[in-house]
Amino acid sequence: MRLIRIVLATASVALFSLPLAAQTSPATIPGRTVSHSLTLVVEGKPTVYSLADLAALPHIPVAVHNKRTNTDDVYSGVPLASLLAAHGVTYTGGDVPLHKFLRCYIVAHSTDDYFVTFSSAEVFPDFHTGDVIVADSVNGKPIAVNGQLELVSSEDKRPSRLVYSLAKIIFLESPGE
Question: What was the pLDDT predicted at 95?
């Protein structure tokens, strides 16, 4: 019993002597893979975007309040709607019926198997006032702490769908009746 107390006391001292950022930063987790590219899958066809590919595309700023750090951050990145539109995913009111478009959804995966979903309407400006971007910088600096790419939504009240170390985005259609 005494040995357990000594081990726990030693572990507590070691943990609390680390800077807070080192205790909470996902980049410090052993074995975590940092994202160096983004794979976008539309209709089962994957396209890989390097960091340079994404940097060359038009960016927009998105301001969000980070409740974890209690700071206001400005991310810069490529609108997800623009990436999807480059692969033929748009709603223009033309040949694609509205009900078919609205039953589509996006699944965004990180390198550590965390994933979130968005409805198609949440990422296209024809339906939603917020922005969802593939961010490669925050506050004017490249993202380095949590992987080099993050998926950021401007309209979420909580940062639960912020995806660190973004690795893959899949566009899917829910099966119809």
Answer: 62
Distance CA 13, CA 48 (A): 44
pLDDT at 39: 97
* Domain presence at residue 13: no
C-alpha–C-alpha distance, residues 45 and 28, integer Å: 33
Q: What is the rounded distance in angstroms from the CA atom of residue 169 to the CA atom of residue 18?
A: 34
Residue 57 lies in a domain: yes
CA gap 50, 53 in Å, rounded: 5
19 within domain boundaries:
no
Tell me the pLDDT tens digit for each residue of 40-89.
999 899 999 999 999 999 999 999 987 778 889 999 999 999 999 999 88
> How far is it, in rounded angstroms, from Cα 114 to Cα 110?
5
Q: What is the pLDDT of residue 156?
A: 80
48: containing domain: 31-173
Q: What stretches in the chain show pLDDT beneath 50?
A: 1-29
Give the number of domains in the chain.
Answer: 1
Instruction: List phi, psi (to 5°) of 75.
Output: -90, 155
Residue 80 belongs to domain with CATH number: 3.90.420.10
Asked if residue 74 is part of any domain, the answer here is yes
Provide the whole-model pTM: 0.79
Which of 29, 22, 23, 21 shows the shortest CA–CA distance to 112?
A: 29
